[in-house]
Structure formats: structure tokens, C-alpha cells
Write a structure and sequence with these properties.
Blueprint lengths: L1 H24 L7 H26 L5 H26 L1 H4 L9 H22 L5
């Protein structure tokens, strides 16, 4: 599971860098300031959670079962939160109406918050002397 989490973290981080550069250079010319700010928010939160998953995949503070819960909760959150933001921010240039995804963004946010809460709860439950 650790390997899977670290690989996912690396892929999410890589995609964040690519999308951030794409937003800063190519999209800057075609998006409004508000759309670009939204897009950058999606990139930023994806990178935060790539680093979060890197920690989860390498820490000794969590059991394998706890890592699995945190991993899937965070990954679902990134897909729903950042993914919906990317699609909503670029819908004018894609000519696809993604407005139906509006409610998905906060649901993704709840998953991201939950992944941090799960991390805190599981670390607190550990009976270590460190």
C-alpha cells in the first residue's frame, strides 16, 4: 500500500506542476482572472494533497488499514474537488457545460477535510512512545 500511495502522490504532484504551468502560461491568455484564480486553487489543493499523501505513504504513525482509509478519502477528495474546479474553470474554452459539477466541489472538500481528520484520529489512537 505504501508504494501505491507514494506513486499516487508523485503522479498528483507531477500533474499539479504541469497544470500550474499550463494555467500560468497558456490559460492566462484565455481565462478571466476569476477563472484563473479558481483553476489555481484546484492546482494548489491538488499539490497540498500530493504532499499529504507522500507523508501518509511514508509515515510509521499509521497502520496499513488506516493508510488505506486516508488514501482513498484524500484521492476521492482531490478528484472531486480539484477535478471539478478544473472543468468548471475551463468550461468556456472547452464549450462543455459543466455547471452540474458545482455541487461536487464542496463534496470533494468534505472528503479532503475528512482525510485530515482520519489522519489525526488514527495518529491519536496509536499507542507508541515516540
Amino acid at each position: 500500500m505504501n508504494r501505491k500511495i507514494v506513486i499516487t502522490a508523485a503522479v498528483l504532484g507531477l500533474i499539479s506542476i504541469v497544470l500550474g504551468a499550463f494555467g500560468a502560461h497558456a490559460l492566462k491568455k484565455v481565462l478571466t482572472v476569476e477563472q484563473l484564480v479558481s483553476f489555481e486553487t484546484g492546482v494548489r489543493y491538488q499539490m497540498y494533497h500530493a504532499l499529504f499523501l507522500l507523508f501518509v505513504g511514508t509515515t510509521q504513525f499509521l497502520t496499513e488499514k488506516a493508510k488505506k482509509y486516508v488514501y482513498y478519502t484524500a484521492l476521492t477528495g482531490v478528484i472531486l474537488f480539484s477535478g471539478s474546479i478544473f472543468l468548471l474553470a475551463t468550461q468556456e474554452i472547452s464549450q462543455i457545460n459543466f455547471r452540474f459539477l458545482g455541487p461536487v466541489t464542496p463534496i470533494g472538500g468534505v472528503f479532503l477535510i475528512s482525510s485530515w481528520l482520519l489522519l489525526a484520529v488514527h495518529v491519536c489512537k496509536q499507542k507508541t512512545h515516540n
